[in-house]
Amino acid sequence: MAVDLVVGLLGIAALGHAAFSTVQYRNILKVTEEAFLWPPFYVIIEICISLVLCFWAALRVPGQFLPVLPDLEEDRLAQLTENVDFMTFNHRGRIFPLKIDEGLNLND
Amino acid sequence: MANKSRNKNASEKSKTDGDDVSLYSAENIQHNMRTLYYSRTFLSIVGGIVAGILGLTGVSGFLFYFVIMMATSAAVALKAGFKIGMYFDSLNRVTLDGLTAGLMSFVLFWTLAYDIVHIF
């Protein structure tokens, strides 16, 4: 986490340095009276590097994604009911076949 | 008799087709959306400063913003391991959410950087 923050700060520092270099470049252009089209080559390289660093930091710093689906194996939480004593299982419902049984093939 | 109930975080968010009820953990969806929003905002700001330094004006600046946002969507998909269904409820959220909010930040820092670098 701290490494990613440092990477992000480096990216922003590189961006600031690129801005400063561009300002100096423009001052040179004012002296030679040329029009500004693109910043110089090394500034563009520096901007690309700082973009890469900032992308890295932007993806890492806010943290990992959490799984959303509730049935994943690694996150199961089984809760047992406490009032099993009050549950009756010997009722008329025992006649109905379970859905699992219908899939079973008992004629091996 | 064990009753396996759902994860504590889960709250019902069912899809509209009748038979298939999918439960999403709303707390985790919110966390993921917040993460995505932070990433997008930061990259909008950085993109704005870059557009200002490069001296982009007019339509090309806005095109640059959309390029940065598409790159962000691709990077987020990469971060999620391309299993977007596991972390978000729809692909549209990954690509379209936060686009307008980022646009405001982008324009702000774009004009700021452009003024600092090219005018003053």
UniProtKB/TrEMBL annotation, chain A:
Designated name of the protein: Membrane magnesium transporter
One of the record's GO cellular component terms: plasma membrane
A GO molecular-function descriptor: inorganic cation transmembrane transporter activity
Taxonomic source organism: Ceratopteris richardii (Triangle waterfern)
Bilayer-spanning residue ranges: 37-59
Superkingdom as given in the UniProt entry: Eukaryota
Alphabetical UniProt keywords: Membrane, Transmembrane, Transmembrane helix
Keyword Transmembrane: yes
Subcellular location(s) of the protein: Membrane
From TrEMBL, chain B:
Keyword annotations from UniProtKB, A to Z: Endoplasmic reticulum, Membrane, Transmembrane, Transmembrane helix
Transmembrane segments: 37-56, 62-82, 94-114
GO terms for cellular component: EMC complex
Protein location: Endoplasmic reticulum membrane
GO biological process: autophagosome assembly; protein folding in endoplasmic reticulum
Membrane topology field: Multi-pass membrane protein
Similarity comment text for this entry: Belongs to the EMC6 family.
Protein name: ER membrane protein complex subunit 6
